[in-house]
Amino acid sequence: ESRPPAQSPWPYPRWIAHRGAGKHAPENTLAAFRLGASHGYRMFECDAKLSADGVVFLLHDDTLDRTTNGHGIGGELHWATLSQLDAGGWHSRQFAGEPLATLEAVARYCQANHALLNIEIKPTTGLEFETGRAVALTAARLWGWPADGATAALPPGAVPPLLTSFQPESLKAALEATPALPRGLLLETLWSGWLEAALALRCEAIVCDQDLWDTTSVAQARREGLRTLAYTVNDESSVQRLLALGIDGIITDRIDLFSPAA
Ligand code: G3P
Ligand code: CA
User: Fold this and answer.
1) pLDDT of 26-75, one tens digit each?
2) Which GO biological process categories is it annotated with (predicted)?
3) What CA–CA distance (Å, rounded) separates 53 from 38?
4) pTM across the whole model
5) Catalytic residue at 78?
6) For residues 28 and 32, what is the distance between their CA atoms, to the nearest angstrom?
7) What is the C-alpha to C-alpha distance for residues 166 and 157, in angstroms, rounded to an integer?
8) Residue 146 has what DSSP assignment?
């Protein structure tokens, strides 16, 4: 039996800057958020994981080596060590000294600049549940969002962060910890049972590799009231194809090419 289409309006804009604006500035740092905002973006995707002492911070890879001057598994270090790393110099000299960002710093930035956030839960291998729980609880605290759904006291129009993950286990932890925060299942393939999994996790959205969206998969998601988002969309013809399909959200690196006002 199908669920009815989602009743409430989708509160997120169509255009979402990937990893902050992570091609033109060092990904997942505040410098990337600032640059995306300067191009008119008001929603950002980012990658969140857990330090060894329980601080939620932004890092895409398991290891620090590609995007910082540190080495090894990021989630195995304490924040006191992580906070000393240079997460900008690898990108270009202009960003040398840019630190790793905590989710708390990003929340403050977004709130001060009226920006919305898509937090991808990016667990260190083996910590899928713990990371999902920690990210969800931290996000609920930082946005002042009641975990249990009692949102009546929030200011009108308040919009929570959207939590996403490739890991069903992380979304399960988020559902248990903060059922009121919206969730999206990330997919790089349409694995068997993806739709049922998204519904069991009470997701509001499917966030797919762009090539997985076609008339069939969009219709399948829509029939269940799920929103459709695509990553990572960096050329005009792909944008046109996705817009023709009626995709709700486009995650892009090309803040220079696509204006979110268009
Ligand atoms: O959240 C969409 C996209 O960011 C997923 O892929 O590898 O860039 O985190 P990745
Ligand atoms: Ca991501």
Assistant:
1) 999 999 999 999 999 999 999 999 999 999 999 999 999 999 999 999 99
2) lipid metabolic process
3) 34
4) 0.96
5) no
6) 6
7) 28
8) -
Exactly one of 18, 24, 39, 91 is catalytic; which is it?
18
∠ CA 10-162-196, nearest 5°, is 80
Q: CA 23, CA 3: separation in Å to the nearest integer?
A: 38
pLDDT of residue 262: 64
Cα(185)–Cα(203) distance, integer angstroms: 7
Answer yes or no: is the C-beta of 253 below 6 A from any ligand 1 atom: no
Distance 19 CA to ligand 2 centre (A): 6
165, exposed or middle or buried, with CB in 10 Å at 0-12, 13-18, 19+?
buried
Question: Looking at 24, 60, 78, 114, which residue is catalytic?
Answer: 60
Q: Which atom of ligand 1 is least distant from the CA of 120?
A: 1
Whether residue 1 contacts residue 103, with contact meaning beta carbons closer than 8 Å, is answered with: no
User: Does the ipTM exceed 0.95?
Assistant: yes
Strand extents, DSSP E, 169-211: 183-187, 205-209
* Cross-strand pairs, 81: none
Alpha carbon of 231 to ligand 1 centroid (Å): 7
251 lines ligand 1 (CB under 6 A): yes
Domains, the chain, ordered by start? 15-182 (3.20.20.190)
Question: Encoding tokens for residue 159?
Answer: 């919009």
